[in-house]
Amino acid sequence: MARVENKIALVVGGAKGIGLAIAERLSSEGATVFLTGRRADEVEAAARELGGDARGLVADAGAPEDLSRVVATVREARGRLDLLVLNAGLSEPAAIADQTLEHFDRHFAVNVRGMVFGLQAALPAMSDGASVVLMGSIADAMGIPPYSTYAATKASVRSYARSWAAELAPRGIRVNVVAPGPTDTDMMAAVSEESRAALIAPIPMGRMARPDEVASATLFLLSDEASFITGAELCVDGGMRQV
């Protein structure tokens, strides 16, 4: 039996990269998938790739009104939401001497505000016993210059997961974090070989994660196989932060 059969899933930030891999895996395991992205062409292409009942919705993850509209669409179409993945994220370097208000605000708008108000918008539609996965990063507990603001946003993700797990437990809603290390997405294709080698060097397994490996961890936490796991962080990092 498929692990999330007959579940209604929403993947915020699901049009490409890790998010698309998660959407594909949920669809293959029996879920009806709604996904969002900022660019209409990417969203439409992702929904076509999934096929079946999958539906793509254009939305800015940093705009609470967009997320409210998305949840209303899911609720109107399917009546409820069982699985929520808040994956949208932004990561740009800036040393403290070069930090700007715009850089700071942009990261917290997408990585934190979007997540907070995305969950808030989704809650009225979520079934009791639903499952939430927040996309974190192993950067949440590491010093990674010049990505201090990005790392701070991911530390916020980890902290919120703990509090929300406790707050939503009476409804049986589980909240967990998947924390990838360097992952070989399309975005990494533009990275120089020297930069790739520097990213891989601290990873005991000697390579980056594949998006489908992050998707597998996400599927596990969303499924009933993780029915007694909440408030946890699952690192998908080849041992980079563990060893």
Description:
- By secondary structure, this protein is of the alpha/beta class.
- It has one domain (8-236): Rossmann fold, CATH 3.40.50.
- The chain is built from 7 helices and 7 strands; from the N terminus they run βαβαβαβαβαβααβ.
- A 7-stranded parallel sheet has the order 3-2-1-4-5-6-7, sandwiched between helices.
- α1 links the parallel β1 and β2.
- α1 packs across α7 and α4 packs parallel to α5 (148-168).
- It starts with 7 loop residues before the first strand and ends in a 7-residue tail after the last strand.
- The mean pLDDT is 96.
- Residues 7-181 form the Ketoreductase domain.
- InterPro entries: KR_dom, NAD(P)-bd_dom_sf, Sc_DH/Rdtase_CS, SDR_DHRS6-like, SDR_fam.
- Keywords: Oxidoreductase.
- This is 3-oxoacyl-ACP reductase.
Write the layout of secondary structure elements.
Layout (H helix, E strand, L loop, with lengths): L7 E5 L4 H12 L3 E6 L2 H11 L4 E4 L5 H15 L2 E6 L14 H22 L3 E10 L12 H21 L5 E7 L12 H8 L10 H12 L10 E4 L7
Parallel strand pairs: 1-2, 1-4, 2-3, 4-5, 5-6, 6-7
Helix pairs in contact: 1-7, 3-4, 4-5
State the low-pLDDT regions, or none: none
- Tell me which CATH architecture applies here: 3-Layer(aba) Sandwich
Report the β-strand fraction as a percent range: 15-25%
Number of helices: 7
By helix and strand content, what is the structural category?
alpha/beta
The SSE order reads EHEHEHEHEHEHHE
Quick one: CATH superfamily?
A: NAD(P)-binding Rossmann-like Domain
